[in-house]
Amino acid sequence: MSMACLSLPPSLRHRGENHYLGGLIPLDPSLDGMNNYLSPIVQDLLASWKQGTWYTKTARYPHGRLSRSALLPLICDLPGARKASGTSFSVTIFSTLLCDIRKEDMNSFDYSKWNHRTWEDHKKAAYAWRDATSKKARAKLFKKNGIRWCELLLLPYWDPTRFVIIDPMHNLFLGLVQTHVREFLAMDIEGGDELAPLTPATPHQMAKAKKVWERTPTRSKLSSLAIPALHFLCTDLNVPPPNFAAGKRRRKAPYIDALLVSYISLSWQNLTRTHTV
């Protein structure tokens, strides 16, 4: 766990000598075990916020200067962010930080009807979980709200509904958002005469595609693959990829049909050879 001073210029704030190492976590903590590691840091931040630190002299203030520190954005991958903020991401509760949309409401695309979560609602649910008298009561509250107690809530200014940053490593740097928007939502098609370019399959997608093919592919298994992975399979197996009309979006079904026809044909040929021998 490390912290960077946002008061420094961007060119300096992420240098190693300017980072504060707040602690090391040797093992993946339990769902609420992250609080044990956060507690010492929170106590230091509380003191820095309430009392502050007095510097007897600085370059701009020769007679001394009072400095206060505050923790603002929490930047982690998704599992780390959920544990550190005391929230959950499950199949029934999509976002415990932004809105109350649940599985039964997943087809609601009118965002004006979504109820946005507030800081006060979050704190109320977190304190209720912390003050529950039994594990059973805590489990019941968590199932209802998707919120646990988080040590960061002791900071009087820290708002988890605004300060938890979406996982930048996977979503931005590794291109998950780009892949989702381009391949699943097909938002990169410009409607011209040429078919939109296909994003190459990643090594992970290629490995998964090969594993599905080697373990008796079915329509449901192939459907779990992204379009770049299906296109890779066609190329790797010398299966002619489907033709799409100009300006149309690529769809999984034609790829899957072509691959299944090829698999059935190969299986029939192998069966025929076996009986002939």
What is the oligomeric state here? Answer: single chain
N/C terminus separation: 65 Å
Strand order within the widest beta sheet: 1-2
Mean pLDDT score: 84
Number of strands: 4
Largest sheet: 2 strands, antiparallel
Give me the Rg, rounded.
Answer: 26 Å
Helical run tally: 12
| Fraction of helical residues | 40-55%
Order of helices and strands: EHEHEEHHHHHHHHHH
Number of domains: 2
The residue ranges in which pLDDT falls below 50 over 5 or more consecutive positions are none
Principal-axis shape? elongated
**Residue share in β-strands:** under 5%
Structural class: mainly alpha
Describe the structure.
It is a single chain. This protein folds into two domains: 2-173, no CATH class; 196-276, no CATH class. The protein has twelve helices and four strands, in the order E-H-E-H-E-E-H-H-H-H-H-H-H-H-H-H. It has helices at 10-13, 34-50, 78-85, 119-131, 135-145, 160-163, 168-173, 176-184, 203-214, 219-223, 227-236, 252-276; strands at 2-4, 19-21, 53-55, 65-67. The strands form two sheets. It has a two-stranded antiparallel sheet. The model has no long low-confidence stretch (mean pLDDT 84).
